[in-house]
Amino acid sequence: MTDFTAEVQGVTKRYGETEAVRGVDLTLAPGECVAMVGHNGAGKSSLIKLMLGLTTPTEGRIRVLGGDPASAACSPIRRRIGFLPENVAFHPSMTGRETLDFYARLKGAPCRDNDALFEKVGLEPAAIRRRVSTYSKGMRQRLALAQALLGGPKLLFLDEPTTGLDPALRQSFYAIVAELRDRGTTILLCSHALTELEGQADRVVVMNRGRKVADGSLATLRSLAQLPVRIRLTLPTGEIDTLAARVGEGAALTRLAGGVVELACANDDKVGLVRRIACDGSAANIADIEIVQPSLDEMYAHFLRREAAE
Ligand SMILES: Nc1ncnc2c1ncn2[C@@H]1O[C@H](COP(=O)(O)OP(=O)(O)OP(=O)(O)O)[C@@H](O)[C@H]1O
Asked: From 3.90.870.10, 3.20.20.30, 3.30.70.120, 3.40.640.10, which CATH number describes the 228-293 domain?
C-alpha cells in the first residue's frame, strides 16, 4: 500500500504534436495542501485531468487513492475525489438546490447532506431557491465549491478557485480550504494569484511548458533560489546616506518613498547586517525596521528564468 494520496510517475501527455505534460513526477501526501503555479499553457489543467482519470497518460503511471483513476474498476475511487474546474458552467435555469441535488445524484452522494454543504460555503437558504442565472460570480463559485465537496472527498482539485472573487470572499474560501486540510483532505490548488497562496500551501510546484521545474515548501524554494532578502528602514532622509555608508557593506541600497531605504543582502548575511544596524550610532533615529523575504512571485520568476537559461 502506498502512503501517498496521489502519485504521478514519469508522466507525459501528448495531444498530437503538443506535449502538454512532460516527464512529470509528483506526489501528494494525505492532508497536504499543494499549490501548482505556472503560466497559461504550462500543463496544470492537463495534469489535473490525468489525476482525475478524465484522460490517460501517453507515458508513465498514475495512482490516486491506491488505484488507476482512469480504470473502469475505480469509480468508487473517483467518488472520493472532488474537482472545482477553472470554468464552471451550471445550467442557468436550475436553482442552487436543484443543481447540487443533480450533482449529488451523479456522484452517488446523499442529497440530505446538501444543506450542510450550503451552510459550509455560505449560500443562504433564500439564495439556494433562486435560479443560478441570477447568481453573482461569488455565489456561483460558492455553489461550485459545494459541488466539489459532495461526498466528503479525500482528494480535492481546485483549478483557479478564486479568480474574479473579491478579497473577503477569497479569505472565506481559504478558510474553508484550511479547515478541509486540517481534517485530512489532500488539496491541489492551481492559481495565478501567487501572493494569496503564501501561507495557504504546504508546498509549491512550479510548472513551465509541461515540465515541473520546482517543488518544495516556500522555505525550501527560498533556499534553492538564493534570492536577496531586503531590510527596510524608515529614518530621516538626512540619515540615510550616513547609515548606509557605515553599515551597508555588501548590501545594495534602494531608496523607496516615504523616507524608507531598502538594503538587499544574501540571506546568510541578514543577521550580520541587522546587528550592524542595531549597533550603529544612528540606530536611535530608525522609526521602523522590516525584513522582507522574497515573495512567491519573485521565486516563480526566478525558476522560470533559470529554466529559460538552461
Ligand atoms: N484537449 C487538448 N487538445 C489539444 N491540446 C491541448 C488539449 N488540452 C490542453 N492542450 C494543450 O496543452 C498545453 C497545456 O494546456 P493546459 O490547459 O494543461 O495548461 P494550463 O497550465 O492549465 O493553462 P491555463 O493556466 O491557461 O489554464 C497547451 O499548449 C494546450 O493548448
From this structure: 3.30.70.120
